[in-house]
Amino acid sequence: MSGVMIRALLVLCKACLLWMAVSANAHTVQPGIATLALDAARTQLSLRVNAEVIMAGVDVTQINDTDALEGDAAARYGDLRGLTDAALAERLNNDPAWLTGVRLQSPAGPLTLSLVDVAVEPQPDPELPRFTTVTLTASPASSVRLAWAPSYGELVVRERDGGYNAFLAPGEWSAMVSSGQAALSTWDVMSTYIVSGVAHIIPMGLDHILFVAGLYFFGAGRGALIAQISVFTVAHTLTLALASLAIVRISPAIVEPLIAASIVYIGVENLLRRGRTGLSRRLMLVFAFGLLHGLGFASVLSEFGLQAGAFGLSLISFNVGVEIGQLLVIAPLALLLGTWAARQDWYRAAVQVPASLAIAAVGAYWVLERTLLA
C-alpha cells in the first residue's frame, strides 16, 4: 500500500513540476481596467487592455497566460506583438472593429462609442505583454452601465471620482454608474475588494502562490506553518498600508526582482534545513520577505484604486481577500500531503525536496526575467 502511495505522490510531484515550469514565464493575462467619466458634455471611457490579445481573437477565459496560445491564435498574437508601438497604435486607430465587444448603456438604451485616442505603453521585451490605453467617448448620459464580451476576460470598472469600483467576471454588466453618485455601501465595498484580493492571489499572483507554497514545504509541522503565515501576513499588511498611504514608495523595477529572489531563497532553505532547526531565523526572513510582497500587492491595488471615502475599509477588505487566497493555496496542500504522507520517511525525498527545487528554479528564472531579460 505504501508503495502505491509513494508512486502516486511522485506522479503528483512531477505534475506540479510540469505546471510550474509551464507557468514560469508568468505572462499572465491581466484584467482590463475601465475608467468612466460622466459630465454634461460627454461620457468618456478609458480602457487599459492587452489590445493584441483582443485583436487576435483570443478567448482569454480559456488561457491563463499568453504562452498558452497555440496555432493560428498564437501566430496572430505574435504578429501583432511584433509591431512597433507606433505601428500598433496606427492599426488600432484604423481598425476600431476590435472594440465592438465593448458595450455601454444608458437608461435610454445603448450608447455609440467613438474612438478618440490610443496610447501604447512601451514594452521593449517582445516576450512580455504590452498594454494600451484607449479613450472612447459617447453622448452625455445621467448614468451608464458597462460590459464587454465574455472572451475579453475579467474587467475592473471604476468611476473617475471614486463613486464606483467593481471587479467583473467575463461578460458581466456593471451596476448603473453616475457622476457624483453616493458612496458604495459597506457591504458593496467589502465584497468588491475581497473578491479583488482573492483574484490577485488566484489566479494572477503566481509569484505569491509559489512563495506561500514554499512556506508550506519548510516541513517543520503545523505550528511552524502557522507561525510563518502569521508573520508573513503581518508584514505584507504593514507595507500594503504604508504604500497605499504613499508613505513608502519603491519602484516595481526593484520590488519585483526582489520578490522573485525571495522565492529562490525560500526554496533553497527548504533543502538545507529540516524540522524546527533555525525556525526563529526563518521567521525573521519571512517577515522581511513579507514586507516586499506587501509592496507587490500595493502595486496591483494602485491600478484597481481604493474606494473614495472608504479607504480603510477597502484596504482591509482587499487584505482579507489576499488572506483567503493564501488559505486556498495552503488548504489543498495540507489536504493532499499534510496528514499521513508528511509523517513518512520518504516524504522529504519524494515530495518536499522536488517541490522546493522546482520553486527555487522558477524563482531563479523570474529573477533573470525581471532583471537581465527585462
UniProtKB/TrEMBL annotation:
InterPro entries the UniProt entry points to: Put_HupE_UreJ
Full protein name: HupE/UreJ family protein
Keyword Cell membrane: no
Transmembrane segments: 193-218, 225-248, 254-272, 284-304, 324-342, 349-368
Signal peptide span: 1-26
Organism this protein belongs to: Litorivicinus lipolyticus
UniProt entry keywords in alphabetical sequence: Membrane, Signal, Transmembrane, Transmembrane helix
A Pfam family matched in the record: HupE_UreJ_2
Superkingdom: Bacteria
